[in-house]
Design brief:
Elements (H helix, E strand, L loop, with lengths): L2 H8 L15 H6 L3 E6 L2 E6 L1 H23 L5 H26 L1 H5 L11 H25 L2 H27 L8 H26 L2 H26 L1 H6 L7 H19 L12
Antiparallel strand pairs: 1-2
Helix pairs in contact: 3-4, 3-11, 4-6, 6-7, 6-8, 8-9, 9-11
Length: about 280
């Protein structure tokens, strides 16, 4: 999905009509979180959630770096190629998320408005990149853990899933429908890929018990642990609890710190370990 296409769509959508519920003014938006008013020469803007911005941009840059490393060491291994593609897509998605959900969220969604809009085309692009990245990683697992018809079926599923989700998100943006452009919908769309990856890597570990299958199983079990930690932090309401004590650390920060640890594990355990599974003679 190109930025030019997204820009063209933004001119004919009603995405900006999705407000917070209840509606919030720019002033109320700023009172709900830490921010810096940056003034330097001709530059004048509001930067929100400075610490969270640093964390999510670290996720993005680390993910992009590891993705590039996979491509550098891919040799003839398709699984490494798809890991590289998946991580690059996810890294670009994290950059977009950090720009709109954190760093420049006020400027994008509140500045010059009577009421802040709930989402933006930056966030729509984040959803699309992230979902595509997860499906690319499923293809990578398919090359490591399957052959023949099953590999083709999994690759076809990943492509179809990415295409369908793109249609869902664009429908949500153009109609608009809040849930279809939400993080919760993204998680629902990504769940089958995660479950399939766990099943495939679990089966491979049961059959082979080698270094590669162990590393892959730990990788996908790790992402489940990160998601569970995020859900628990959200259920416990840690953002409100800590913010009342003057500490800004949110459930999103829990997710992003977990993602940093997950990507570091991938960087150490997978690039020179994963290989394509070959058909048995």
């Amino acid at each position: 999905m190109s930025f030019l296409f997204l820009a063209a769509l933004s001119g004919c959508s009603r995405l900006d009509s999705i407000d917070y519920s209840p509606k919030i003014t720019p002033e109320e938006f700023l009172r709900s979180q830490p921010y810096w008013h940056v003034k330097f020469a001709a530059t004048d803007f509001i930067l929100i959630q400075p610490s969270s911005t640093v964390i999510v941009y670290c996720v993005a840059l680390l993910t992009l770096g590891v993705g590039l490393y996979f491509l550098r060491v891919r040799e003839s291994q398709r699984t490494r190629l798809w890991w590289g593609i998946g991580l690059l897509l996810s890294g670009f998605g994290a950059l977009l998320a950090g720009t709109s959900y954190q760093a420049f969220g006020y400027e994008i969604k509140c500045a010059g408005r009577a009421f802040c809009t709930w989402t933006s085309w930056w966030e729509v692009a984040y959803l699309l990149f992230t979902a595509a990245g997860m499906n690319a990683m499923l293809v990578a697992v398919a090359y490591s853990c399957t052959t023949g018809t099953l590999r083709k079926a999994l690759s076809a599923y990943a492509a179809t899933s990415a295409a369908v989700y793109t249609g869902v998100v664009l429908t949500g943006a153009l109609v608009p429908i809040r849930f279809l452009v939400s993080f919760e919908c993204l998680m629902l769309a990504a769940t089958p890929a995660i479950v399939l990856a766990l099943i495939l890597t679990g089966r491979a570990f049961h059959e082979r018990r080698d270094r590669m299958s162990r590393a892959l199983l730990r990788t996908w079990a790790g992402v489940v642990m990160v998601i569970v930690a995020y859900v628990l932090a959200l259920a416990m309401g840690i953002t409100q609890t800590l913010w009342t004590r003057g500490i800004w650390f949110t459930e999103n920060d829990v997710l992003h710190v977990g993602m940093i640890l997950w990507i570091l594990h991938i960087a150490v355990a997978l690039p020179k370990t994963v290989e394509d599974m070959r058909k048995r003679a």
